[in-house]
């Protein structure tokens, strides 16, 4: 039995919540749902999930947000905790005003933890989600330039992400949910605006512990390890889970074996921080393989777009391990280095043909770009 807003996926015994949006109305599908043997719960999703969290949810809630890497942190933490506990987590990228409530509602009654990913585009959106989820623990994967076109400055981005601490703990009304419960966060001191975010967390009643790690990949692993230790996961189980971890979410670091080459599908999204993260991971994961990248434009950067794309080209050029480089998008064209290939956004089929026709063998090729570019279509002709 589960809760759903999608009439197509409900099954007999499920609860269907008929959500109304600007282009759809779930009430139009009630007959279809009843015919499947599902039940209808005609309530406001936000209100119902908020009440459920405040009065009935027994699992410890861990909120994950950040400019880049939050899905990886969510999946990694769930894998580590799952070695000793029963764990629920956000499915795929359902990290918005629909996905967060459904994640909480679908948490099994006997779950020990629920790991909730929380996304945003502007101010007030994380606050809305955190007032539903009321996380016992908070991890912030990174603070970068994602959404800077809308929020204008990195400080505003930090303030928007720090809304994850902005809820009233007294809203957890049931005595069984509040007894002995505390609110904690682990923050990286190397994170942008660490002092600002740390101060907000303390003001909101969170105890703050820290790690210090400039590398974003190691930072995520260290935060997950620190939290796991604090909740009682053994060192052996932490080590085993980290060593065997693979990213399960679609279009995020998915490895595709293609002839003698390996393709990395990381096409879900892109921003300056996640691009650098993915490139560093490529180099770290495959130190003995020849490397290539196919990188598409990054969107929603506003006035920072030109500088960010030039800096990315320079960043790649500083890593001689990457010997085959292809850029996709007009904004890259003025800055492309000698020896690099370039294609227009509409030439993704030609990019696939270039990959197919290359005489390079044994390469690992990372493919990444903003979601609106649909970079995953490069894989279809292959």
Provide keyphrases for this structure:
382 residues, alpha/beta, Udp-n-acetylmuramoylalanyl-d-glutamate--2,6- Diaminopimelate Ligase, Chain: A, domain 1, UDP-N-acetylmuramoyl-L-alanine:D-glutamate ligase, Protein-Tyrosine Phosphatase, Chain A, 3 domains, six-stranded parallel beta sheet, six-stranded mixed beta sheet, 14 helices, 15 strands
| Biggest sheet layout | 6 strands, parallel
Number of structurally distinct domains: 3
> Helical content, roughly?
25-40%
The dominant shape is globular
3D structure, described in words:
Helix 2 packs across helix 4, helix 3 runs parallel beside helix 10 and helix 12 runs parallel beside helix 13. This protein starts with a strand and ends in a 14-residue tail after the last strand. The radius of gyration is 22 Å and the shape is globular. It has 382 residues and is an alpha/beta fold. Helix content is 35%, strand content 17%. The strands form three sheets. It has a six-stranded parallel beta sheet, sandwiched between helices. It has a six-stranded mixed beta sheet with strand order 10-11-15-12-13-14, with helices on both faces. It has three domains: 40 residues, Udp-n-acetylmuramoylalanyl-d-glutamate--2,6- Diaminopimelate Ligase, Chain: A, domain 1; 198 residues, 3-Layer(aba) Sandwich (UDP-N-acetylmuramoyl-L-alanine:D-glutamate ligase), CATH 3.40.1190.10; 126 residues, Protein-Tyrosine Phosphatase, Chain A. It is built from 14 helices and 15 strands. Strand 12, helix 13 and strand 13 form a beta-alpha-beta unit.
